Amino acid sequence: MTNPLFDQLFAKHNGMGKPFLRLGGGSVLSYVDFLGLAAQMAHVLTQSSLKPGDRLAAQVQKSPEALALYSACVQAGVVFLPLNTAYTTDEVSYFIEDGGARMIVCDMKAEEALSTISDRLGACLETLNGDGTGTLMENARMMPDVFSTVARSADDLAALLYTSGTTGRSKGAMLSQGNLLSNAETLAKEWRFTPDDVLLHALPIFHTHGLLVATNVTLAAGASMIFLPKFDVDQLVDFMQDATVLMGVPTFYTRLLDHPCFDRKLTSGMRLFVSGSAPLLAETHVQFEDRTGHRILERYGMTETNMNTSNPYDGERRAGTVGLPLPGVDVKVTDPDTGATLPGSDLGQIEVRGPNVFKGYWQMSEKTSAELRSDGFFITGDHGKIDADGYLHILGRNKDLIISGGYNIYPKEIELVLDAQPGVKESAVIGVPHRDLGETVIGVIVAETGQLPDLDRIMEAVRTSLARFKHPRKLVVCPELPRNTMAKVQKNVLREEFKDAFHTDDAGVGPRRSGADMETLC
Ligand code: MLC
Ligand code: AMP
Questions:
Q1: Model-level pTM greater than 0.85?
Q2: Three-class SS state of 500
Q3: CATH superfamily of 401-520
């Protein structure tokens, strides 16, 4: 085998005229055409002097061409570094620089802003727009549609996925070919995927869920996808009867439940609904079953580990749990102070080990050794327990993290921006319950003595440096932050104080008001 990931996920479908991607407007891209397109792109990469192991950073809209770029990287042995389209130039520049990208692929609109960094790094810059136009495709079209696959081993890197850190500095999770392949094959088997499956794909493809779970599992099974540009509840309802599987974050399911046409008849041809990336409320699980007769299958994973546990396909799907360890994956709950495995159903930190677990953080050996033990167990930062039947319950996190609509937001990153603003003495950013997004962000600010911070100006600073999904939906000014005897900010006290801030109907489903509520509590 020359390149396990490419051979097992992509090459085995070569010559197949069967549909791979069904696109809006009724057009279809077959496996053979998709692989031809990817091969043309792989030529562009090698002709731009990219070598195996080099990183390619892509901040591009979801499109068949964007997915073909991932395939091209795997085939050419280039490490794929996908980036959230919502990231600002500041954010993207950090990832490109830290990852040492040799090629940057971006939307034409970002070309000028990113040319500074590509010049500085000596990296190539190509454009790829959401409609498939741009220099990458112009160059690719002139290339042969067959490419000689570059040899790689299971241990070689396939992807570098950035995940934010509690200190505010993002870390690149190094994922090997073996990590991705083993997980895709396991999930395809556990979730009974067959070539007849049609996955309704409405997730972004720059994260683990949409790329490494949804796409790779489809590829592993030789199935096809209805490939939607983004989540749109009406589109999901329109296409539901043509699909057999949906994978989504909990917000997908709460929005579907709010749709008047979403019922048993509409879902009668579906065989599986999978939820992950954030906690699915037991209440949503129950409502979903009442409405459709389907029990959502919840699973648990991370950027660093791919998927670790899953509720069973055939056995009991237990609401409020993330199921059982996947085959080949060890899960244990340990004492955070001693690292000792806890007995019975005691609550502790969750650790995982298996072929799915990453190789470490890119150029961060200290962080890697702090979180990835020498015996292979990774300390997830999640807290939970394993019940008497072996089901894992996630009951909290010992990392300061907010999950909003399936996107991770690290408060420290926002606090650093707030603290740097004139008139701000200090700040604390917390997540509070939100019906649509699960959690949303509130920034609590303490003013410098005798000063009144300009909240509009503060929000402007937030807008220029951070992606929209990270913006506080409310900013409040308080006289002081609650602290314990060790002077540590008690975020739990703040979370309790503001827990009902978004519990009104107007803060529910659909687009929210832009900008934060400017509010002063004194
Ligand atoms: C969009 N917005 C968000 C947001 N998504 N704000 C907070 N949190 C989010 N998740 C902003 C938009 O920029 C917009 O700003 C406003 O909210 C309204 O947008 P919307 O149209 O209502 O949002 P929508 O486009 O429908 O997006 C919501 C969503 C989307 C939930 C469908 O965020 C999404 O697809 N999430 C999936 C994330 C994901 O794939 N996570 C997997 C990570 S991997 P404005 O300017 O209009 O106010 C992982 C590992 C694992 O965690 O286990 O899977
Ligand atoms: P990310 O770093 O984006 O990969 O996010 C990983 C984190 O998402 C995990 O550490 C969990 O905290 C959370 N997560 C993923 N799936 C679930 C789930 N099914 N239930 C609860 N939390 C989840």
A1: yes
A2: coil
A3: ANL, C-terminal domain (3.30.300.30)
Q: Which residues contact 285 (CB under 8 A, 6 or more apart)?
A: 295, 296, 298, 319, 320
Q: Tokens 């080099």 map to which residue?
A: 54
Ligand 2 close to Cβ of residue 349 (< 6 A): no
- Ligand 1 lining (C-beta closer than 6 Å): 203-204, 207-210, 230-231, 249, 251, 276-277, 301-303, 404-407, 437, 468-469, 510-512, 514
In Å, how far are 133, 230, 262, 287, 386 from 238, measured between CA atoms?
27, 14, 10, 21, 39
Domain with CATH 3.40.50.12780 in the chain: 1-152
Give yes or no for residue 279 CB within 6 A of ligand 2: yes
Q: 418-450 in b/e burial notation, b at 16+ Cβ within 10 A? A: beebebbeebbbbbbbbbbbbbbbbbbbbbeee
Of 297, 300, 351, the residue with max ligand 2 atoms within 8 A of its CB, to mutate for a pocket test, comes to 300
Which 3 state secondary structure label does DSSP give 172?
strand
pLDDT digits (tens, 9 = 90+) for 469-491: 999 999 999 999 999 988 999 99
Average pLDDT of the chain is 94
499-510 residue pLDDT tens = 999 875 443 333
Q: ∠ CA(150), CA(155), CA(157), 5° rounding?
A: 65
Pairing state of beta strands 424-434 and 171-176?
A: unpaired
* Domain 191-295 CATH (choose: 3.30.420.10, 3.40.50.10190, 3.40.50.980, 3.20.20.70): 3.40.50.980
Sign of CA dihedral 315, 320, 326, 330: negative
Q: CATH says 1-152 is which class?
A: alpha beta
Atom index in ligand 2 nearest the CA of residue 304 equals: 4
User: Which one of the ligands is nearest to 254 CA?
Assistant: 1
Q: What is the pLDDT of residue 24?
A: 81
Atom of ligand 1 nearest to the CA of 232: 26
Q: What is the mean pLDDT of residues 306-333?
A: 98
Q: Outline which parts of the chain fall under CATH 3.40.50.980.
A: 191-295
Query: Residue 510 has what pLDDT?
Result: 33
Determine whether the shortest distance from the Cβ of 254 to ligand 2 is under 6 A. no
Distance 279 CA to ligand 2 centre (A): 7
With a pLDDT cut of 70, the percent of the chain lying above it is 95
CA–CA dist 425, 405 (Å, integer): 30
pLDDT per residue as tens digits for the range 115-126 = 999 999 999 999
Q: Residues 200-215: pLDDT tens digits?
A: 999 999 999 999 999 9
3-class DSSP state of 517:
strand
Residue ranges, CATH 3.30.300.30, the chain: 401-520
- Among all ligands shown, which has an atom nearest to the Cα of 408? 2
Q: What is the pLDDT of residue 84?
A: 97
User: pLDDT tens-digit profile of 385-422?
Assistant: 999 999 999 999 888 999 999 999 999 999 999 999 99
pLDDT for residue 504: 56
Ligand 1 centroid from CA 14, angstroms: 34
